[in-house]
Amino acid sequence: MMAFSSLRSVSVDLNHDASLLIDIPDALCERDKVKFTVHTKTTLSSFQKPDFSVPRQHEDFIWLHDTLVETEDYAGLIIPPAPPKPDFDSPREKMHKLGEGEATMTKEEYTKMKQELEAEYLAVFKKTVQVHEIFLQRLSSHPVLSKDRNFQIFLEYDQDLSVRRKNAKEMFGGFFKNMVKSADEVLISGVKEVDDFFEQEKTFLLDYYSKIKDSTAKAEKMTRAHKNIADDYIHISATLNSLAADDMTANKNLNIILSLQKVEGRVASDQDLKLTELLRYYMRDIQAAKDLLYRRARALADYENSNKALDKARLKSKDIPQAEEHQRQCLQKFDKLSESGKKELTSFKGRRVVAFRKNFIEMAELEIKHAKNSVTLLQGCIELLKSN
Amino acid sequence: MFHFHAQNLFQLEEEEEEEEEDKFDIFVSVKDPEKIGETTLPMFRNKTFTVRRRFSDFLGLYEKLSEKHGPNGFIVPPPPEKSLLGMTKVKVGKEDSSSTDFVERRRGALERYLQRVVNHPSLLQDPDVREFLEREELPRAVSTQALSGAGFLKMINKATDAVSKMTIKMNESDVWFEEKLQEVESADQQFRKLHALVESLVVHRKELSLNTASFAKSAAMLGSAEDNTALSRALSQLAEVEDKMEQLHQEQAANDTFTFAEMIADYIRLLGAVRGSFDHRMKAWQRWQDAQSMLQKKRETEAKLLWANKPDKLQLAKEEIAEWEAKVTQYERDFERVSATVRKEVIRFEREKTKNCKRQIIKYLECLLQSQQQLIKYWEAFLPEAKAIA
User: Fold this and answer.
1) Which residues does UniProt call coiled coil (chain B) (predicted)?
2) Average pLDDT rounded to a whole number, residues A122-148
3) Which of A205, A216, A254, A368 best probes binding to B when mutated, by most B CB atoms within 10 angstroms?
4) DSSP for A296-338, written as a single string
5) A186 and A105, same structural domain?
6) What is the mean pLDDT of each successive set of 10 residues along chain B, which is 390 residues long?
7) Which terminus of chain A is more exposed, N or C, with fewer CB under 10 A?
8) 3-class DSSP state for residue B184?
9) ipTM of the assembly?
10) What percent of chain A has pLDDT over 90?
């Protein structure tokens, strides 16, 4: 069981509208389940209290996301991507391997490895809290989504949400989501575009998505290699320790290897947070933008179909008023989607640029900080060795 | 220009030993050694000279030296193995980088091997060493098969078996030797473990280098797809930084290999030689003991003959006793001499080891330091690009 408190969101500039402030001040990790404490501070009268907290599980967030996606009224909005499931597989597997290999290690080596794993566990934990928090903050800062009834329920309802969740699942059946996954690429590229803006967006988003997906994967591999090096340093320093008994120089070297290991570990996790997580988040966000394009394309297809139906009705001189009404509705829906979609995609651009800037600056500053740290350590050690 | 068949050697060995031996164009230059004590070493004709030697020549030299000086208790430095036994093959990356590594490792190991030989005051006196360093053309060394990795290891293993069988029988005055041997054996274990770990570090660093290069390409692609101008520039700048990082990681992997891993490999071989010297001491002791039992037998025979009253045989017996008494005295003296040598050699070995290790570690850390300083420069150059994003 692990408790965790206080985390500042990293990715996007959110939460400056004081009328609705949300954060996840702490979370509990119990075996496989993570329980997030969702804390709300609000001046809005639609809520019963000005300051309150509720416990929520990951599945509750997914429920909220899915109900938003499946709400017709929000078809013209970019729905913030759902936070990914907390994934403790990697540290858990390593912990298991460590347990098996305990006999072959010295006590110090084992302790150090265990500490490293606990740090890794904590890092995964921090990341998952961050990503769940950002999801809620995206909603609270959106003029339309922040007013959603289910969002309010999510924030306020002080009983277990899982009962409500089950009912909702029965209502929507999750059918829509499956459809989106399989059809969107084809439909988006197939539709004849009338609007220059959307034509450009379509090309841009499809291309950008595949490239950012690739970058995310490559950044992940870099981070993993860094971690492997940090782990190697632990084992090396432990072995030097065993040799140190008969060698004074090795004793001094031991400390520096351990410190270098710590730095390498920090480099790895910072790179992970600032670079890999950034890329991963925007990859999902772009997917959400693509979903918007898909919905618009579907609305356009519906409109075109309604035109065809109207023509048919006129030919047959049958059910013309219904066909006309249907056509009018389709057009209205399409226009509304286009208007709202344009706004959303434009602000998305701005958001993305701001986030990249912030994270790149922080990443560079951290790299410099860690390297300066290493330099000091190394210079000190070399001094010491030379003076003897 | 290298004419080289590393791994293929094993197959070629049997049938083509005469033809396809690897030929190293290694130019080893040895400067006139400094004055040691009072001797000025006029034995070298020139101050600086270069010769061409084959890998098998190095092995041949070792065999000669170990035959002559090993039994006296000297720690004869061993050359690198004929095959890559004991070294994990690093196959990450392109084919040629892995074989370039191997070639460089071997070259460095041979150089250090020679350096250790000439640093040893007694070995430097050996005419075979001088010949090796000076003579234009060396006759081909035969029967270096014994020094293939497997043969070498077998030799060491036989020695350690002998040692472990005899240790129980030695008396307390040898406590120093007993303790030292234990230290050597545990150090050997730790060094082997350390070597494997450092090789693993090298593999991971090479992986990091590859992954960084791969990411750099991807970031450049992303930059070209980005429609915000400043962000696009920043992304391509990031790609450049990561490219430079890849270079740093490569250099670091080389540092890990040649400064760190190779040093450890050297010591694993040397520890084998140390154990070899203990083995020779054991053999000297055994010879002395055997002579003593033989003497005892001869005395018993004499006693029996006294009873049997056979004057001729008795005379022979008396002669034999005198012979074996002399041998016992000789072998005891030999044993003491060898023990003294081993002791001196071990102390010298430890002193040299500490000195060398320290030097290597400083070198390793200085390389790391340089790398980190470069890293700072690269990221500091990137920072304004990141801040310029709007």
Assistant:
1) 314-341
2) 91
3) A368
4) HHHHHHHHHHHHHHHHHHHHHT-SHHHHHHHHHHHHHHHHHHH
5) no
6) 21 24 37 28 53 80 91 91 48 52 81 86 86 76 51 53 54 78 89 92 94 96 93 95 94 90 92 92 91 91 83 86 93 94 93 87 91 95 91
7) N
8) helix
9) 0.85
10) 41
pLDDT of res. B13? 25
**Same structural domain for residues A224 and A135?**
no
| CA triple A266-A269-A275, angle to 5 deg | 125
Residues of chain A contacting residue B193, judged by C-beta atoms under 8 Å apart:
239
> Average pLDDT of chain B?
77
Best to test chain B binding among A205, A229, A373, A385 (most B CBs inside 10 Å): A229
Q: Residue A135: name the closest of A70, A54, A4, A38 by CA.
A: A38
| Number of independent structural domains in chain B | 2
- Say which CATH number the domain at A58 has: 3.30.1520.10
Do A123 and A184 fall within a single domain?
Answer: no
Distance between CA atoms of B388 and B237, rounded to whole angstroms? 12
pLDDT in tens, B112-146: 888 888 888 888 888 888 888 777 777 765 555 44
pTM of the model: 0.80
Q: Which amino acid is at A92?
A: R
Would the pLDDT of A262 be above 90? no
Same domain for B182 and B154: no
**Could you list the residue range(s) of the whole structural domain that residue B36 is in?**
15-136+143-158
* Both tokens assigned to B255: 């540092």
Residue A229: list chain B partners with CB under 8 A. 201, 204-205, 208
Measure CA B165 to chain center: 26
* Residues B193 and B101 reside in one and the same domain: no
